[in-house]
Write a structure and sequence with these properties.
With about 350 residues, the chain is of the alpha/beta class. It is built from eleven helices and 20 strands. It folds into two domains: about 190 residues, Quinone Oxidoreductase, Chain A, domain 1 (Alpha-Beta Complex), CATH 3.90.180.10; about 130 residues, NAD(P)-binding Rossmann-like Domain (Rossmann fold, 3-Layer(aba) Sandwich), CATH 3.40.50. α4 packs parallel to α5, α4 crosses α10 and α5 runs parallel beside α6. The two termini are about 15 Å apart.
């Protein structure tokens, strides 16, 4: 199969012929239909987060099941599926207490000594985030994918696999936004725009989208933002506090920068909650001051929006099919795999929303 291989950080991906193994027990072979170009991949490609090389990035994908191994019960050949990087074992402490997104997922990978899922000749190709979706096929554990409505367009379904599950999960699960709440969304890329859309579905009374790019602010308005703010304008945070008469109930950060995390905390009203979704550099910290704690403010992380993806993803698909969830606005362009490096260059500029790689 054709796949985009990363040999070392800060270098372009290379389109190579990669061999994918046959499905083993509880494994699923998927023909990839579409995969989003996500900033999380860029963190690994640019070396902000470590990973074994060579590897195939890509995790925000949808496709059709081609074959399954022994013991697979969740999907069958012919099923349309969405993959999710928060693969779960189903029996660890996190899984059995309903925190599946925190599962380390070690049982969803092949054990040392077993043949690799991916290789080039005798060279092992490392699987990124249990998926490696920038490829014509994916070989994954059955707990890394979920069957969806076969009428769902797969070039739109793929963005549910990360951006929308993360953003919507933050609203519905981690932050538990209730009707009438005031929500500030810091960063209007794919995840941030999904937060805006989900906050509208949840009935938030006021949704304030904060991003320095005017086009992204306009997209946020289309998806349900009631107000937009340019954070580069002097006094932007003070302006949000003033317009909300004391701050917001929820500030959801979707950028991954210390300054945006600090802004999330700053914007909170008494008793408010800041939820950090972005992947910040590993050495950075965000915290609450003594007066924040005395004011009942809360700060939390939410890996992948604290999702329960086997339940959440089919519901999000249903939201799209019913016209509640707008995925079309999130997608800036559709490209072939050969243009993957162009898509990452656009992502580095910070102006684009979501490029989607489609396979014929």
């Amino acid at each position: 199969m054709k796949a985009a291989v990363l040999y070392e950080t800060k270098t372009p991906l290379v389109i190579e012929d990669v061999t994918v193994d046959k499905p083993g027990p509880r494994e699923v072979l998927i023909r990839t239909a579409a995969v989003g170009v996500c900033r999380s991949d860029l963190h690994f490609i640019d070396g902000t987060y470590p990973h074994a090389m060579p590897c195939i990035p890509g995790h925000e994908a949808a496709g059709i099941v081609e074959a399954v191994g022994d013991g697979v019960t969740m999907v069958k050949p012919g099923d349309a599926v969405i993959t999710c990087l928060s693969a779960f074992c189903g029996h660890c402490e996190f899984c059995v207490t309903g925190r599946m997104s925190l599962c380390m997922g070690r049982d969803t990978r092949r054990r040392p000594g077993e043949p690799p899922r991916l290789r080039m000749g005798e060279t092992v190709v490392n699987q990124m985030l249990d998926l490696s979706a920038y490829a014509e096929q994916m070989l994954v554990h059955e707990h890394a994918c979920v069957a969806i409505n076969p009428e769902m367009p797969l070039d739109r379904a793929c963005v549910i696999g990360c951006a929308v599950t993360t953003g919507a999960g933050a609203v519905f699960r981690a932050a538990d936004v209730t009707p009438g709440d005031t929500v500030a969304v810091i960063g209007c890329g794919g995840v941030g725009l999904a937060v805006v859309n989900a906050a509208k579905i949840a009935g938030a009374g006021r949704i304030i989208a904060i991003d320095p790019v005017a086009d992204k602010r306009r997209l946020a308005e289309k998806l349900g933002a009631t107000d937009t703010v340019d954070p580069m304008v002097e006094g932007a945070a003070a302006g949000v506090i003033e317009m909300t008469k004391g701050g917001v109930d929820h500030a959801i950060e979707a950028v991954g920068r210390p300054a945006s995390g600090e802004m999330a905390v700053t914007l909170l009203r008494r008793g408010g909650t800041a939820t950090i979704l972005g992947m910040m550099p590993l050495t950075e910290k965000v915290g609450l001051g003594a007066i924040d704690l005395l004011s009942g403010k809360k700060l939390q992380g939410a890996k992948m929006g604290a999702n329960c993806f086997p339940v959440d993803i089919p519901r999000l698909v249903d939201f799209y099919m019913r016209g509640l969830l707008d995925l079309d606005t999130l997608i800036a362009e559709r490209i072939p795999l050969e243009q993957i490096n162009h898509a990452f260059d656009e992502l580095r500029k910070g102006d684009s929303v979501r490029s989607v790689v489609t396979f014929g």
